[in-house]
From TrEMBL:
GO cellular component: dynactin complex
GO biological process: cytoskeleton-dependent cytokinesis
Pfam families: Dynactin_p22 (PF07426)
Species in which this protein is naturally found: Dactylonectria macrodidyma
Protein name, per record: Uncharacterized protein
Assigned keywords, A-Z: Coiled coil
Coiled coil: 256-283
Length: 283
């Protein structure tokens, strides 16, 4: 069973079998704030191998939901636990270490794992995990910022019960917010009453409108066909007008221009002849 599934069982069932030092932390504040994370993570499916960002985010949520310092202090104080309980603790830490190794593998590639034959105590494993997790958060600035935000504003990471006041606000602050919004309560009540008293439209009108949907689609298709036909008529009219202008108006203009030029030439010749006759008469 994965480690976050064990935590999910602890959050759902207070009588679930687990190590005694975990049961002693059942009323700790950090466990209550992380239960919503555990429930959400327990319901999530395993991400695909190609979804790198999704896997990183999921592993980060698991680490955020599980502070390591309380485990380390408690394990140091309970060194005389039973062998079976110690094995349960070590297996839990092994699962957590495998999660951390997955994150390191996704970020840095292949890592060299310690020898499987080498035995480590629970305290040494927790210390090693804490160091590696601190190194990870120091190298990846986003992870460190997310952990800071989670510690200062845990309400951002899970939806609180609407009946419960915000945990970050004092009772006086909540009271001032309620009193500041009290003036809008009557107007909101009147609006809701007006909405409640407003009559429901006759369903037959909506049914008739829905029945007209096919006819409206047919009319729309007819309009589109008419628009296409009008565009074709405009193009044909443009071609006809251009042909008439080029073959009629321009040709007539050319003929008139030729006639004008011939008349001007004839006038010049007549004037020249008159001038010659006048000169002969003078002589």
């Amino acid at each position: 069973m994965p480690f976050f599934t064990v935590l999910g069982a602890l959050a759902r069932d207070q009588t679930a079998p687990c190590p005694s030092f975990i049961n002693s932390y059942d009323n700790a504040p950090w466990l209550h704030t992380s239960r919503s994370f555990v429930h959400d993570i327990d319901k999530l499916p395993d991400p695909p191998a190609s979804a790198l960002a999704s896997r990183l985010a999921r592993n980060l949520h698991i680490f955020v939901a599980l502070p390591l310092t309380p485990f380390r202090d408690r394990v140091a104080a309970t060194s005389s636990v039973a062998v079976a309980m110690d094995q349960t603790t070590l297996s839990t830490l092994d699962l957590l270490e495998s999660r951390l190794l997955r994150v390191e593998h996704l970020l840095y590639g292949q890592t060299v794992s310690p020898s499987l034959a080498q035995e480590y105590s629970a305290l040494e494993k927790i210390g090693d995990l804490e160091k590696r997790f601190s190194l990870l958060t120091s190298k990846i600035r986003v992870y460190g910022e997310l952990i800071k935000i989670y510690k200062s504003h845990p309400d951002f990471f899970h939806s609180a019960d609407p009946s419960e006041p915000p945990s970050q606000l004092s009772a006086d602050a909540v009271q001032s917010i309620v009193l500041a919004s009290a003036s809008s309560f009557p107007s909101t009540l009147s609006s809701l009453t007006a909405i409640k008293d407003s009559p429901i439209p006759d369903p037959s009108e909506s049914t008739a409108l829905i029945a007209l949907g096919d006819r409206m689609k047919a009319v729309e298709a007819t309009q589109l066909a008419q628009a296409a036909e009008m565009a074709d008529l405009r193009k044909r009219s443009e071609r006809i007008i251009r042909s008439w202008y080029e073959s009629g108006v321009l040709d007539n203009s050319n003929v008139m221009a030729d006639l004008v030029s011939r008349v001007e030439t004839a006038e010049r010749q007549v004037r020249r002849a008159e001038r010659e006759l006048d000169e002969e008469d003078d002589l």
